[in-house]
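Handoff note, outgoing to incoming analyst
You'll be picking up this chain. Sequence as last confirmed:
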Amino acid sequence: MIVYDLACRPAGHVFEGWFGSAADYDGQRARGLLSCPICGAADVAKAPMAPRLSGTDTTPAFRPEVAKAMLAGLARAQAEVLKRSDDVGDRFAREARAIHDGDSPDRAIHGSATPSEVRSLSEDGIAVMPLPLPVRPPGTDN
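Most recent structure output, in case you need it:
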């Protein structure tokens, strides 16, 4: 089985196609059997895609224990950062803007914001970034 990222040429929609072999793809394309699932265009070709790597002698295999240790380290680092910041909950956008404007004390904060609030903050030159891992609201742990 081979997987290709495909794209329709008229609109550039990218989608995945699974084929029995490279020859299967070539044959289906030659017979006009491929079409974009989004717009229906028949002009479809392979799209650039990242290589799919598997473990070999030159490529390290995925090791779950290494990934688990890395995530645990990231979680510890994030927990330390959160200890030194104020949780402002869903008031994040308002508080970030108040800090930026000098109406609230300068400090590290974290909380939640809608995509449109984040976009508005960014457009106004207020630097924000998502936390790498989800944060459970206070009082929700068992």
